[in-house]
Amino acid sequence: MLARDTWLELRGRVIFWFSAAVLVVAGAMAAFPGLFARLGPNEGCDLRMSKQGPAPGAVFGYDLQGCDYWSQIVHGTRASILIGLAVTVFALLISIVLGLIAGYYGGVADALISRLTDVFFGIPFVLGATVILVAFPDHGIWAMTLVLVLLGWTTMTRLMRGQVLAVREMDFVVAARALGAGDRRIMLRHILPNAIAPVFVVAMLNVGNVIAGEATLDYLGVGLQYPDVSWGLQLNVAQTFFAEHPHLLVFPALFLTATVLSFLMLGDVVRDALDPRLR
């Protein structure tokens, strides 16, 4: 019933369809870049075309190495989307496990998990990731994903714990316990389905934040490195030449902004649909 009511609410929202359409296109570009780009990453580059603006056959112009900029931007989508989704999925799984244990059992388990969460919550996301990545310079997409997961699970864990605390004393949980249901069954069959919705909304919002964080690390020069292709790396290179060649910064910035904003808007509209008080 909740899923049906949520869908009925979402399908009437223009923002939902707009953000979903943008994310479908971005996802398709990440999964099947060959459908959108005529060249592969760092392929067919000609230094004689370096930094030239939009022209026939190259609608976004050329980058510093003389590569077709449209093709480079399309291939840059994969790193951002992959890291954003992977970090969020792993962080969500961690938050579900820790939040269920802390909220359901309480006591020592709750105290230990809460203090551990406080420690990691006190580490600034970008600054902490910068320190770790500088210490281990030979890293790629999966190393960055691991670092961002390490720093990105705390908010969802706190929320999950609070939801479990609110649900565990409800009548249907008490009844299941009285009928002899085990702890694992109660947590997975009764508490989790009734506690996960707000955490899932935060996870959707978190994808956009992670993509922005990944691009920031690339922009600062501590994230992905050449020959990897990402929007953050393109912004890093473009900052020096913005006055003379603005297309180098404008195009990846537009794609990054549209993707992050779409995740944030989608999370907001889903949150409103799940909570009748916000309609």
Keywords:
single chain; 279 residues; mainly alpha; MetI-like fold; 11 helices; elongated
Compact overview of the structure:
This protein is mainly α and 279 residues long.
Secondary-structure topology with pairs:
Layout: H1 2-10, H2 14-31, H3 69-105, H4 107-121, H5 125-135, H6 141-151, H7 154-167, H8 171-178, H9 183-220, H10 231-238, H11 247-274
Helix pairs in contact: 1-11, 2-3, 2-11, 3-4, 3-6, 3-7, 3-9, 4-7, 5-6, 7-9, 8-9, 9-10, 9-11, 10-11
Describe, in plain words, how this protein is organized in 3D:
The protein has 279 residues and is mostly helical. It has a single domain (2-278), classed as MetI-like (MetI-like fold, Orthogonal Bundle). The protein is built from 11 helices and no strands. The chain has helices at 2-10, 14-31, 69-105, 107-121, 125-135, 141-151, 154-167, 171-178, 183-220, 231-238, 247-274. Helix 2 (14-31) crosses helix 3. The longest helix is centred in the C-terminal third of the chain and has 38 residues, at 183-220. The protein starts with a helix and ends in a 5-residue tail after the last helix. The model has no long low-confidence stretch (mean pLDDT 88).
Q: Structural class of the helix and strand makeup?
A: mainly alpha
Q: Runs with pLDDT <50, length 5+? A: none
The third-level CATH topology is MetI-like fold
Number of strands: 0
Find the CATH superfamily. Answer: MetI-like
Assembly form of the protein: single chain
The H-and-E topology, N to C, reads as HHHHHHHHHHH
Whole-number tally of structural domains = 1
